[in-house]
Amino acid sequence: MLSRVAENLYWMARYLERAENTARLINATTQVLLDLPRGAFFGWDVLIRVAGLDNLFHEHYAQADEDNVVNFLVRDESNPSSIVSSLHNARENTRTFREVLPMEIWERINDLHLFIRDNASRATQGRGLRHQVLNGVIERRQSIIGLLMGSMSHDIPYQFLKLGRNVERADMTTRIVDVNSAVQLPADPALTVPALERLWMGTLNAMSAYQMYRRHVGVHVRRKDVVNFLLKDAHFPRTVRHCLDEIEGCLSVLPRHDEAMRASRRAWRRLDGMRLEGLAPVVLHEYMDQIQADLGDVHAALARQYFDLHHAPAMEAGVSQ
Amino acid sequence: MRIELRNYSDNPAYDELVDADGQPRPAARVLFRHIDGLDAGELEARRQAVEAAIMTMGITFTVYSDAGNIDRAWPFDIIPRVIARGEWARIEAGLKQRLTALNLFINDLYNEQRIVRDGVFPLEVLSGSKNFREQCRGITPRFGVWAHICGTDLVRDRDGTVYVLEDNLRVPSGVSYMLENRQLMKRLFPEIFRAISILPVDDYPTQLYDTLAALSPRRDLHPDERPVIAVLTPGIYNSAYFEHSYLAQQMGAFLVEGSDLVVREDDRVYMNTVSGLRRVDVIYRRIDDDFLDPEVFRPESALGVPGLMRAWRAGQVGIANAPGAGVADDKVVYAFVPKIIKYYLGEDPIIPNVPSWLCMYDDEREYVLANLDKLVVKPANESGGYGMLIGPRATQAERDQFAELIRANPRNYMAQPTLSISTAPTLVDGHMEPRHLDLRPFVLQSDQMFVTTGGLTRVAMKAGSLVVNSSQGGGSKDTWIVEAED
Questions:
Q1: Domain B357-417 falls in which CATH fold?
Q2: What is the value of ipTM here, to two decimals?
């Protein structure tokens, strides 16, 4: 397949995943807010920070309150990672390779794009409407994944879709985990313990992970268990470990995969070696940064090996018929 | 009729579906019986459903402006245009005859030029041709065919005669809309398709694939191997990008941009893939000659592929349409097509040309200049209606200015009478009114020939307008070839 198309497929998958995860991130935060005990404090600016968008945000907004942050993350076109921008980019990307996708996929992506275009303003009119719109995005995105799995040959183009999805998903999982580190709880342990439990339950819910967590880990929602689950569980599809396994699976069927495979294994080993019990929030935050950097290396290796060819057509690439 | 026909009593044009007494023509009777079973509300509901489907299916054309590229939904009228099968058979034969002769003509021009030596085609027309490519002299592509894909514009005049208005031999577009229009109609009116036997149109991508595959330079492929076919597009900002991607998808071909391709020292064309370079056998190019190869044509072109002409001349890649095929896509050459058919095939044209006056001949030019208020004047090498004078609608100042242009460069102009092109009933606010239309069938030629069943009907959505171009308020209709009732 064409390098240019591989790159566009990969980015389309990343943009779609980013849109869905941004919706999940906002839903998770809303949950956190509803469950906070009196005396606890949480600032919406955390979302901007974990998304790595502080500078851009403060160029456009004076105050990081709920309205501004949600507006920025959902519909602000000056934010290239907002849901509206991500879905616009996903659609524009899809236009460049409609011929490799089943026809209905384009229709669904187009439909999702039209949905957010027509409904984004409602997402900033209170939490109830917001929840409806964000869930609309998540559901439509999920139906696209379902259609892809069921109607697209699982050949090389499919691997690039999967790579994009899993790189982005692993990255966003670390960011969602990071949100909770920023909550400042009251000193009274009688309040803190149940509050913490509800906090993490909210996170699990937002990631559609609560039921699986209960089945595999147990009914008690403790921070170390949740973090361990979301990072290291081998089977739940949104964990960092699972995403890395998927990335490795994709790479194993791609040609010339050595460099990217090495980067992916490095990330895997580092994750495996992390001891997550009894971590201070600030250390956990640093761990998340480390995983994000490792995922960045995986991305860079993919770009060098598969995408950058078409930027330098004179390079000595192997000739195959 | 529950859906009312309006403005038909004073319609001066021939109507495709309704006769002079306001009755359905034989081929359209079943359609009208069906429409009679619907009330205005139902029809309107279907129309809205079609619009929603067009949005979801993303059937668009791109209008480029300073504000960025805008995808506009494809304007579509749900009342189909119907043609009787008997009449279509004659048109189909005429289209094949015409393209066969044109390909013999192009091949002759680039080789012996017998037609010039025999005095049938004047040398001055050839030497004045913008689209004659010196770089193509002495080449005979496979099967001697240069124009593999041709979009021929047909119109019907007041007396019911169908004429060829022009031959599009460079990069004709519109076939994807023909295919999508049929998909839309099947989604929206499945019951009509059960009631009427409408000939299918959907084998075009297969036929196009076979036409292209026959051009592959690799003749020794294993039976399991397929030639690698690429559709070469200028990119997403091109107004026909939707079609490029649609056809690539339908054929299972690669959609490539110039930067994806490279020609190496072995004169072969390769594309950059995730596994390295892969050989390309056939290129269906959707960019003009001028931009195809910066080594040979416009050096500043970033859309093309350096070395592509070298690869083609060496027989290492098939290109459709062949570079230089546009020489026959010239309004002045058009006027000679009846003679060209006679010369190469010894036959009279089955579909006539619109009578034309060539300004290069003194007597014909004098006639044109004296009758500018009645004629349509066209420049030889423009397409899409650019640089035309529609005499009856122009001001005196515009006509005077055009007279100067003609005198300065007579070879570049030809003129035709203003035709009263035919109409068909079109849905307007819950009733039907006549709107002008044309028809663009697509003709394929390599080792075999193929004509689409019908083609793309383009319709001027504004009352009285003759402009069917989508960029100027034109839309389209599904085109049905049906058995007529006696």
A1: Dna Ligase; domain 1 (3.30.1490)
A2: 0.71
